[in-house]
Write a structure and sequence with these properties.
The complex is a heterodimer of chains A (299) and B (301). With 299 residues, chain A is of the alpha/beta class. Chain A folds into 2 domains: 150 residues, 3-Layer(aba) Sandwich (Rossmann fold), CATH 3.40.50; 128 residues, Rossmann fold (3-Layer(aba) Sandwich). Helices cover 38% and strands 18% of the residues of chain A. In chain A, the strands form 2 sheets. A 6-stranded parallel beta sheet of chain A has the order 2-1-3-4-6-5, sandwiched between helices. A 5-stranded mixed beta sheet of chain A has the order 7-9-8-10-11, with helices on both faces. In chain A, strand 10, helix 9 and strand 11 form a beta-alpha-beta unit. In chain A, helix 2 packs parallel to helix 4 and helix 7 crosses helix 11. The N and C termini of chain A lie far apart (46 Å). In chain B, helix 8 links the parallel strand 6 and strand 7. With 301 residues, chain B is an alpha/beta fold. Chain B has 9 helices and 7 strands, in the order ααβααβαβββααβαβα. In chain B, the strands form 2 sheets. Chain B has a 5-stranded parallel beta sheet, sandwiched between helices. The chains are: A alpha/beta (299), B alpha/beta (301). At the A-B interface, helix 2 and helix 4 of A face helix 4 and helix 5 of B.
């Protein structure tokens, strides 16, 4: 099963679903000829894309909208906020090459505030899958939900088997108490490997795949904070407004604090390059993450 | 009883009908203007744009659109979008005159116990979508129009836009797409009142030649006097103006139409009149003495 297989299956079973794009067809390149009445490409026009998606949703449709995510979430931000958010319409906003996945494109293509701005819109939920398998596990529930959703599109191959998906529920690996790693999206793989490295060094680790930064699984976070000595957040996102901020909000809301080590882009764009080189340069490989965590535990 | 002579048949039945509609529409538009004026105190409203658009809105709902509370949920109804949301007093007043909205609710203007505020919203039955942010409802209307095409429906999708709104890039982006998708079920009506917020359009961001601009974007354009019902009737009944093209009506209107003391004035765009001014303006509307306005002018933006 691929993203494309699930989408065509949804469309074939339920005419509500439509694919829309602003000249971004990578996720479903073979589908357009098969679904002439459920496919719309508007060209490089993200604002019009979202406005039309809202109009289609008014007609009872559920448009699944694709574009490179910086342009989709930022060029069309006010359309998402005003038409989809205020309207509370079931538009599914699928952002391509989020975070580090834009690798060599440079800062124009680096969506490092997408989670922050999308979750800030009332009614709009956010799904940031760990890898392709995680994305496919969540896809139907996210697309069939009556809520507007933003999804970070991610087809990185999975290194683990994921559990069943539920909106608003995080996925927990292990029950360690020395350190808990909270992560969403593409960096899950690095976090998972960092967990293995730390465990080989004798630390007890748990890993939380957040899955939906909004709605956030507050119970999973609170339980983790109560049981673990160090909390680590890992995200390919600016430090402001993403997972680290979400953790801070949850803690504050519950009169709690914690020892927290964040991995995020510290108010800067990342050095463009091949993905693996970018991770190394910016300090987000599993080895670099494990080293920094070891230091933090011992300090 | 004296036997009446048989009534002479009018030469053109069509012409006679138009005249009758004219009178009826004029009366309705006058009442709509009265409501608008009454909404211009106690917090105020965007009176200039509401008055420029009143005749168009009255005409469209009364004569052109197949929509009423009986078919509000019918997917085959005609759709109306007011993209330039400032005109909402004209829209709600038209709903009152159509019997769709309780007149008493206009008194709730800007009250938190109702949903009657400066921009349209879907809490008022009949409103298809909210507006307020300019440059949005054209693309929303296009989504509806395209879906109607997909479903092989014959209904009309009308969106009223402002001339100032045409400063927004999203309008022209959307037009490119509307033409590409051959949305001939879409009708764009421009309330060409020659003003944007504080200045005449041609003094700030000139739009002329506007018809040529729309034509260059692939539309079929007709220009009319937006206060003459017979012209509206002759033009709108020709919709769609051309197969596979978006239809555009540039309706030449007067900002503040009906009130000479505020007509064509940039500084009476948004107003918040006192009770005695409102009474004088209602008099002025009916062709009596010009109102003596003492309220300070407001630069709302």
């Amino acid at each position: 099963m691929t993203y494309s297989d699930i989408v065509i299956d949804l469309i074939n079973k339920d005419d509500r679903f439509l694919i829309m794009t602003s000249e971004n067809r990578a996720a479903f390149r073979d589908l357009p000829p098969l679904i002439p009445n459920n496919f719309i490409d508007v060209g490089i026009a993200e604002q019009t894309l979202i406005g039309m998606a809202a109009g289609l949703a008014l007609r009872g449709r559920t448009p699944i909208v694709h574009a490179l995510t910086t342009f989709l979430t930022m060029r069309a931000f006010e359309f998402i906020r005003t038409d989809v958010g205020i309207g509370n319409l079931p538009v599914k906003i699928v952002g391509a090459v989020p975070g580090f996945l834009s690798d060599g494109n440079g800062p124009t293509h680096q969506a490092l505030e997408d989670i922050s701005i999308m979750r800030g819109i009332p009614n709009v939920n956010v799904f940031s899958p760990a890898d392709e398998e995680d994305m496919l596990k969540g896809l139907r529930k996210v697309f069939e939900s009556p809520s507007p959703f933003y999804m970070r599109y991610n087809t990185v191959k999975a290194v683990v088997e994921h559990s069943d998906f539920e909106i608003g529920k995080a996925e927990t690996f292990g029950s360690g108490t020395d350190v808990a790693i909270l992560v969403h999206g593409f960096l899950f793989t690095q976090a998972f490997r960092a967990k293995e490295i730390l465990e080989s060094q004798g630390f007890s680790v748990r890993l939380i795949n957040i899955r939906t930064p909004k709605p956030i699984d507050e119970n999973a976070i609170l339980k983790t904070v109560d049981e673990c000595k160090l909390i680590v957040t890992i995200e390919d996102h600016f430090i402001t407004g993403g997972l680290y901020t979400i953790l801070a909000e949850v803690l504050l809301r519950n009169n709690k604090t914690a020892k927290v080590l964040p991995f995020a882009l510290m108010n800067k764009w990342f050095k463009p390059g091949l993905l693996n080189d970018v991770l190394e340069y910016e300090g987000f490989t599993s080895k670099q993450i494990a080293e920094k965590i070891t230091k933090a535990i011992s300090s | 009883m004296k036997k009446l002579k048989p009534v002479k048949k009018p030469k053109s039945k069509k012409g006679k009908d138009t005249f009758r509609q004219n009178n009826e529409l004029k009366k309705m538009a006058l009442r709509v203007r009265e409501h608008i004026i009454r909404m211009s105190g106690n917090g105020g409203c965007f009176i200039g744009a509401s008055l420029s658009c009143a005749d168009l809105i009255v005409y469209l709902y009364k004569e052109f659109l197949n929509v009423s509370p009986d078919n509000f949920k019918d997917p085959a109804r005609d759709y109306f979008f007011l993209s330039k949301g400032h005109d909402v007093p004209a829209l709600y007043s038209t709903y009152v005159e159509l019997g769709w909205l309780d007149e008493a609710r206009l008194k709730n203007h800007l009250k938190t116990n109702d949903f009657i505020y400066w921009h349209p919203n879907r809490n008022i039955p009949g409103i298809e979508f909210h507006s307020g942010s300019l440059g949005h409802n054209l693309s929303v209307a296009m989504g509806v129009a395209l879906d109607c095409k997909f479903r092989k429906q014959k209904n009309k999708i009308v969106v009223v836009v402002g001339d100032g709104e045409l400063n927004e890039g999203s309008m022209w982006e959307a037009l490119l797409v509307a033409s590409a998708k051959k949305l001939d079920n879409l009708l764009i009506v421009v309330d060409r009142n020659q003003f944007q917020a504080n200045l005449p359009t041609e003094d700030l961001i000139p739009l002329e030649p506007l018809d040529k601009k729309f034509e260059a974007f692939g539309c079929k354009v007709k220009t009319i006097n937006g206060h003459k019902f017979s012209q509206m009737n002759n033009t709108f009944k020709k919709f769609p103006f051309e197969k596979r093209k978006v239809s555009v009506v540039i309706a030449e209107t007067v900002r503040g139409k009906g009130l000479p003391s505020i007509e064509k004035r940039a500084d009476r765009w948004f107003v918040n009149f006192k009770e005695e001014e409102i009474e004088q303006l209602l008099n002025e509307l009916h062709g009596n003495k010009k109102a003596k306005l003492t309220s300070e002018t407001i630069v709302a933006r």
